[in-house]
Design a protein that fits this description.
Layout: H1 14-35, H2 39-116, E1 120-128, E2 137-140, E3 153-155, E4 160-167, E5 172-176, E6 183-188, E7 194-198, E8 206-209, E9 222-225, E10 237-245, E11 254-259, E12 268-273, H3 287-296
Antiparallel strand pairs: 1-2, 1-12, 2-5, 3-4, 3-12, 4-5, 6-7, 6-9, 7-8, 8-11, 9-10, 10-11
């Protein structure tokens, strides 16, 4: 036969069950608070349930880690992209600053040369470089309105660079030293030998001609303008000797030179408004010649 449940747990006694469990809870609370009776049970339960808690918390942690990973990755990617753009901008600014510094240095040298020159100078800027693979000519932004005339020399901060060949109203054409058959009279600063410096063509060394094979020349000698042609003022640097070929079968040496100024580097140049006195003074007659002329005329 089936036994009936205790009266305490009968369905018709809910008040008794409530009172029983309340009293049991109070007893357990008192025992845990005052007597610490359930610490071992709770510690054992935590020890047993910790792996289960760890396993159950793993999906949430992985989900949080994944969200943080992708968020950090996107942030770093954007930061790297921004820094790469900043590096490109800074590189561009650095190159621009370097070019401006070089240009400012060239302008300061030009101004210093202008202050030391015994003649007037005119600062100018290159506005056009014709696309001719053979010719070495440029166009500057100064013309007849600025007092520029054909034949006037053009210089950079280190020395002569060319000569005005054609003049327009607001611009002029300049033939550089490397222009084929361009010539300029020079002399060797160390020894005083005179010669003529010729251009051979674009990117080719200059040639010093009309020098004897046994002339006193050395690699590294400076060539400066002689001024005897009346076009270039004397004493301005032009080129430096880089190679000497003393051919035994020829009466003249083959002498290669390099211009002092880099002909394809600078943007600003200077026109030398040089107008030498080309009127030669008349030779004076000596006293003896004057006396003979007087005697012929029957004078005292």
């Amino acid at each position: 036969m089936f036994r009936s449940s205790p009266s305490l747990f009968n369905q018709d006694a809910p008040i008794l069950r409530l009172v029983f469990f309340l009293l049991l809870s109070l007893v357990l609370l008192f025992a845990d608070l005052r007597l610490h009776a359930t610490e071992q049970i709770r510690s054992f339960g935590q020890h047993v349930l910790y792996p289960v808690q760890k396993i159950l918390s793993m999906p949430g942690k992985y989900a949080e880690f994944s969200v943080e990973y992708f968020s950090t990755r996107n942030t770093l990617k954007n930061r790297v992209s921004d820094q790469a753009q900043q590096i490109e901008n800074l590189t561009l600014l650095a190159n621009q600053a370097e070019n401006l510094e070089s240009e400012n240095s060239n302008l300061r040298k030009l101004l210093n040369l202008q202050q030391k020159s015994p003649f007037k100078t005119l600062a100018t800027e290159i506005i056009y470089n014709p696309t001719n693979p053979v010719s070495q000519k440029i166009i500057i932004n100064r013309g007849t309105l600025d007092g520029v005339k054909p034949g006037m020399p053009v210089a950079g901060s280190l020395g002569i660079m060319g000569q005005i060949t054609r003049v327009f109203t607001n611009s002029s054409e300049v033939a550089l030293l490397e222009e084929k058959d361009f010539s300029i009279p020079v002399f060797v600063e160390r020894s005083g030998l005179r010669g003529a410096l010729f251009g051979v063509g674009r990117s080719e060394p200059l040639e010093l001609r009309y020098i004897n094979n046994l002339a006193d020349l050395d690699i590294g000698d400076y060539l400066i303008t002689s001024g005897i042609d009346g076009t270039y003022p004397p004493g301005i640097p032009v080129a430096i000797i880089t190679k000497i070929d003393r051919a035994s079968e020829s009466s003249g040496a083959i002498i290669s030179c390099r211009p002092f100024s880099n002909l394809n580097q600078y943007l600003h140049l200077m026109v030398l408004l040089y107008q030498p006195n080309t009127i030669a003074p008349l030779p004076t007659e000596s006293e003896a010649v004057k006396n003979r002329l007087k005697l012929k005329k029957g004078g005292p």
